[in-house]
Amino acid sequence: MILATVGTQLPFDRLIGALDELAPKLGVKVVAQIGAQGREPVNIEWRRTMEPRQFEALFLEASVIVAHAGIGTVLAAKRHRKPIIIVPRRAAQGEHRNDHQMATARQLGGSPGIYVAHDIDELGGLLSRTDLERPSPEAGRSIGALHSALRNFIQTGVAVS
Amino acid sequence: MAKDMDERRLTRVLAVSSSGGHWEQLMLLRDSFQGCDVQYAATMEGLGERSGVGATRIVPDFNANKPMRVLTGLMAVAKVVRDAKPNVVISTGAAPGLIALLVGKMIGARTIWIDSVANSERLSLSGRMAGRIADLWVTQWEHLANRNGPVYYGAVL
């Protein structure tokens, strides 16, 4: 099963529309979370929003995640070790307030298990691949330093410089 | 009796975040609160249960685009902070977390802002405002840290 998600804040019709067009040729079930204002697809199963535990269950069931370039979804994909294809929202197309998702996609593209469709036309090719890797559930090495600095400040009120 | 004494001495942490990426990041920072008495607050029902962090207070989501909601949101967040009587307030964003820091500061708590790792080119608006409030102001991007700005220690990615 392919799980698509655009987050809770904004619709992302460019992504859901492309997936809706691809779906009949994919030969695999697609479930999409399309947002409160999203345009309804016709070829795929959809929900506007989901309760966290319901979403978690679908995440576990999915073989691949297709999503906007939201950090929450990327971190969830890492946590569950599911390959994820991200499509960054573009401010110029009214898909977000700014282009921070383009920056996120640039930063994350190339990490194991994280694939970027910079252009929506790349989505079909990525979905037809059978060699998608699973991302690592581990955060990078720097999280340890962040933890210890926070722990220190919480306990002593002194900021590590 | 002895246990009550211990619990009274634990540092009380109030950890507040919006749903989605903000919450995922807060959960990845959980290790930092080990040994503290932690109260979580989120903007969506069911998140605390899903993440297994126990009873989580719910605060309304709001942002600068909806001024009326800010007012009701502000009062709800203020109540959560007053109830928790925290020694430390920490947030990964967004607007409700910023308000929690402000109210926390007013009641004498230490305040920590961790700007979202999603903001790799510029801090979020809440994140920039947090710089005026937070005792510890953190970015997760080394190139965004500077002497008069946020500090960088590492990132959750």
TrEMBL record, chain A:
Organism in which the protein naturally occurs = Caulobacter sp. 602-2
Molecular function in Gene Ontology: hexosyltransferase activity
Which Gene3D superfamilies does the record match to this protein?
Answer: Glycogen Phosphorylase B
Task: Specify the protein name.
Answer: Glucuronosyltransferase
Domain Glycosyl transferase family 28 C-terminal residue range list: 1-109
Task: Show the stretches that span the lipid bilayer.
Answer: none
The answer to keyword Transferase applying to this record is: yes
Q: Does the keyword Transferase apply?
A: yes
Identify the keywords attached in UniProt to this record, alphabetized: Transferase
